[in-house]
Amino acid sequence: MQVTSSIREPLITGGKTIRDVSEDISRQVEGKPTKLWWGAMMISLTLLAFGFYCLCTLLWEGVGVWGLNKTVGWAWDITNFVWWVGIGHAGTLISAILLLFRQKWRMSINRAAEAMTIFAVICAATFPFAHMGRLWLGFYWVFPLPNTWGSLWANFNSPLLWDVFAISTYFSVSLVFWYMGLIPDFAVIRDRAVRQGHKLRANIYNALSFGWDGAARTWSRYESVALILAGLSTPLVLSVHTIVSMDFATSVVPGWHATIFPPYFVAGAIFSGFAMVLTLLIITRKVFKLEDYITIYHIELMNIVIIITGSIVGIAYITEFFIAWYGQVPAEQYAFFNRMQGPYWWAYWSMMTCNVISPQLFWFKKIRTNIVATFILSIIVNIGMWFERFVIIVTSIHRDYVPSSWSMFHPTMYDMGEYVFTFGLFFSAFLLFAKFFPVINMAEVKSIIKSSSEKKH
Amino acid sequence: MDSNRNFVVGIFEDEDVLLHAVEHTREKGLKIHEVYSPFPVHGLDEALGYKRSRLPIAAFLFGMTGTSLALLMQIWMLGYDWPMIIGGKNYASLPPFIPVTFEMTVLLAAFGMVGTFFIASDMKPYKWPRQFDIRSTDDKHVMAIDLATNKMSKEEISALLKSQGASEVNEKNF
């Protein structure tokens, strides 16, 4: 028996019935795309085309077209990589960790958040591949494949190789998790297509749903698969950014060589991931008229996650500084002094303002339940998180142990072009997803209609 | 599946009514062929007398396979096939192998379990399921009772389902 709590706010508003859920969510898959969708798609494809030109130039000419120099060998590429991987953390966190904690509010947002995760990880992966310059050899360098140099195997002692395994596993498992959730919903669209007489659509969505029948026995197995996948994904999510942080933390570069990096990076990843989920969902709920499913209450709860993770990130910044001073290592002290007061002071202070100060505004209930304020702050948070990675990466290496080799990093059009490429890729993929796949998990939302939906008065 | 079987199909609107109906129907000695729902109904598998799924065991075995394969691969590659001193450590030093081992464990467990799920549930992209009522993916719970496996007559079963709160009772022939 499910019991309605009178204390909790309803998760679904507007007195929706189970039938309305199928209707509201399937409609946008069945209808023709709107003018707005086409407009957004054209912009995304333009970005993608420009970025693709920059990427092809890079592959043709070599990595030299980027603004990297002998001192700063990692800059925008790895900044963008870490930024995208970080964004890719919210989806699986929402669907896996919140499932284990039995948080029902995940149900309206997990589908879109997981889609975002998958696309963000694809965007992230383009950077290391582009940085390898010779894409076609990349697989031999990163995967332990037999080769004609010996075989000379990949070095399993390197965190960069752990990263390959972590990110490819994270991508594959997130994809499976997301797809498993989609299966019953594809069946809903299939059966609606049968009733509407769309044979082709019915066949396509039946194939996508693997011939789902909704039998109690299948549901029972399905539920145990979901639970175990959530259990597997939870440590997986935490492992991914931990390993990303080890790319830096296992080095001996001042500013990178810190033991707090793993938890600090994981918190930052969740922080930026939730910000991106908010940015996307605030637009999606408006465009597809899903205000009854993704309510202000959902937005408020996500903003609370942002306060928590944002504060953890703030404490991590302060801890880093304290330890740099307290540790009494001159190189370490200089690295941090240089961050604050050196030539990249503007990046540092942008990071501090966007990541530490701005999320604290969410302590005010008026702000965290305001859609416009949330939207603006979610973008500010992601700008701040981009600066965080830029500060950690570039300011730590642009002034190394040999002052004669100190230099600055100046991005070229191709550095920026690759970033633009990933934006084009991300938004086109998300638009395709929003058009052809149900953006809200119908089966899960239906299961809470009785307990957590606002009743008609 | 053998052809030409007759089913009595009860349609239920509410999951709690359905749960009671399932329990009551089984107490009366009726065998339920299967129940189809638009969403997972908690407690339905126990009410129908289904055993707990053994998929977690499959996941564990696949996971252990991943662990062993990853460890064997790394120890063999860096310890025996092409030994190299990296960072002054032993050829096959265990701690740096743990991240890859963990990832491979998760990867194999997840894919193995999902693959097993598809095989166990006989799900394939080109297969159309048997549907007793097409509304069972929308908003109705559908209880199918096979006449061949039950002694009661069609009319008796219909009356029983109606008394248990079925909103309609239909017949279906496959």
Characterization of the model:
Chain A is mostly helical and 457 residues long. Chain A has one domain: Formate dehydrogenase/DMSO reductase domain (Formate dehydrogenase/DMSO reductase fold, Up-down Bundle), CATH 1.20.1630. In chain A, 71% of the residues lie in helices and 0% in strands. Chain A is built from 17 helices and no strands. Chain A has helices at 18-30, 35-61, 76-87, 89-100, 110-131, 135-142, 159-196, 199-208, 216-249, 261-287, 296-326, 330-341, 345-357, 365-368, 371-397, 413-436, 442-452. In chain A, helix 2 (35-61) runs antiparallel to helix 16 (413-436) and helix 10 (261-287) packs antiparallel against helix 15 (371-397). The longest helix of chain A is centred in the middle third of the chain and has 38 residues, at 159-196. The two termini of chain A are 23 Å apart. The model of chain A has no long low-confidence stretch (mean pLDDT 90). By secondary structure, chain B is an alpha+beta fold. Chain B has 2 domains: 6-52 and 132-173, 2-Layer Sandwich (Alpha-Beta Plaits), CATH 3.30.70; 55-120, no CATH class. Chain B is 44% helix and 13% strand. Chain B is built from 5 helices and 4 strands. Chain B has helices at 15-27, 44-47, 55-81, 98-120, 154-163, and strands spanning 6-12, 34-36, 141-146, 168-173. In chain B, strands 2-3-1-4 form a 4-stranded antiparallel beta sheet. In chain B, helix 3 (55-81) runs antiparallel to helix 4 (98-120). Chain B is rod-shaped, with a radius of gyration of 25 Å. Classes of the chains: A mainly alpha (457), B alpha+beta (174). Chains A and B meet through helix 1, helix 7, helix 8, helix 9 and helix 17 of A and strand 2, helix 3 and helix 4 of B.
Total domain count of chain A: 1
Structural class of chain A: mainly alpha
Order of helices and strands of chain B: EHEHHHEHE
Biggest interface, residues from each chain = A-B, 65 and 65 residues
Relative strand content of chain A: under 5%
**What CATH architecture of chain A do you see?**
Up-down Bundle
Relevant CATH superfamily of chain A = Formate dehydrogenase/DMSO reductase domain
Mean pLDDT of chain B: 88
Q: State the end-to-end CA separation of chain B.
A: 9 Å
Coarse structural class of chain B: alpha+beta
